[in-house]
Amino acid sequence: MGRERAAGCGLEAELARHSGIEIHGSSIRIVFMWRKRRYRETLGLPVTKANIKHAAQLRAAVLHDIKMGKFDYAEHFPDSKQAGNYSNTRDERLHALLARYKPLKAVDITKETESRYGIALDICTDMLGRDRLGSVLLPEDIQKLRVSLIETRATSTVNHYLATLAGFLGWCEANGYCRSGLANACTRFEMTERDPDPLTKAELDALLTKGCLHPMDRAAVTLAVYTGLRPGELGALAREDIDLIKGQIHVNRAITSRGTFKLPKTGKKRVVLLFPPALDACKELLAIEHGIEPRTITVQLTRHESIRETVTPLISPVVQARKKNVNPWFIPTSWNSKWANIQRRAKIRPRRPYQTRHTYACWCLVARGNLAFIAKQMGHKDFTMLVQVYAKWMDDESPFELQHIWAGMQKAA
Length: 413
Hints:
Layout: H1 2-17, E1 21-24, E2 27-34, E3 37-46, H2 49-68, H3 73-76, H4 94-106, H5 111-128, H6 139-152, H7 155-174, H8 201-211, H9 215-227, H10 231-235, E4 242-243, E5 248-251, E6 254-255, E7 261-262, E8 270-273, H11 276-287, E9 295-300, E10 306-311, H12 332-346, H13 355-366, H14 371-378, H15 384-389, H16 391-395, H17 398-412
Parallel strand pairs: 7-9
Antiparallel strand pairs: 1-2, 2-3, 4-5, 5-8, 6-7, 9-10
Helix pairs in contact: 4-5, 5-7, 8-9, 8-12, 9-11, 9-13
């Protein structure tokens, strides 16, 4: 009996020397904190002084790996039920993960896109906590982030942030830095479909006669409406892109808000055939003597490929500028300002510049233009976009479509 007491006192003394070591039943258990949670692992070892010392050494190794950010649950506790849940996760802080992810992502995107992605990721990680471990993030954290983002930002902006964050979290999941399911928690907000808001013929007339103070503005607005060019494509047009003999424009590039050049939105150049008003507008623009010499510009094709072109701006702020140092090209933001002033003077309902593109599509569809032809003119990959976005204008013609098709079938017969 005395020996048993002495042995018991010896075990208690040994346990007291080592924190985080417990006796669970007839076995030794270690206790440690990881990812803000308390874990207990029973080792299956009988309670002896030697085993208590062994457990203390094992716990010390666990704490060291946690501190170094390389703790692998399955490596230390291969028989544990928890091992399967954490067998593929490593501890890294969000700012460190982001620093590694950004250059890897940048390889596949343009510098303009890289900048936008970088801003979105920085904002999201700041709100989540840059010093937080990726492994402790929960879907709830992403859901709270969504709530915070939508309180002060437009839905389209928040959706861009969430899509960008989802890509980052997907990379973290694939590399074992965070638990699975976080990327799926980046659910985008539903957006109300906004119908195109095309100009009427009367509104276009007001824009040209009252809103435009300079021949260049009248020609530019006419060209935008009768070609369906995107604002960035309109601003990047060069005199060398116009072929008056064939009556067409070569859309070879677009200009960004930073004044850099890239391929049009779909990544392909295209040729736009000109309606008579657009052709007259081109003639008027070519007749304007703005004195700008041809400029050599760089057009970014991909992240790693670009071409050099020597071209002369077709529509330039220099023509009406009062300042000397002016960008010879209209970037989307500067065209936005001019368009807003033109609408204000014309006293029509304000619209975004992109509505001139919608105007072109709607007018073509109401005139029963061929869908494939219109899609090609506008630079769409196919006419699916036309059907989705402009169905209202096609449906307006549906009562006459049966007779139109029947007449064609009769001719074919």
